[in-house]
Amino acid sequence: LVEATTSLVVRVRPAAAGPEKGRAKQARSSSLGWVRLPGAESCLGAAALARAVEARLQRSVFVSAAEAGLSVEGRAERTEGGWRAVLLVEGHDGESLGERTLESAAESCDELG
Q: Which residues contact 64 (CB under 8 A, 6 or more apart)?
């Protein structure tokens, strides 16, 4: 369950990293907005997803939107053929840094990642 779900955000990390402008790489803090649309109530909620991602990355990642360098907004939804998760990443200035859509034909939302 955790492995499948954490891969949702881990897969979007390259887009979230953004260009490095002559400075050493450093971990950025992010805010997380996560919604389970009707029919996707069996998917992890925002708090459980945040804990799973932080456990996977072995560091604190998420802070309030006012303090975040990045904003990660996502949703899980049931489709006719299975499940879909959509993730959008924006910089603190609102610039879009990437979007990722993941789909699964599995019976369970757990397999989405």
A: 31
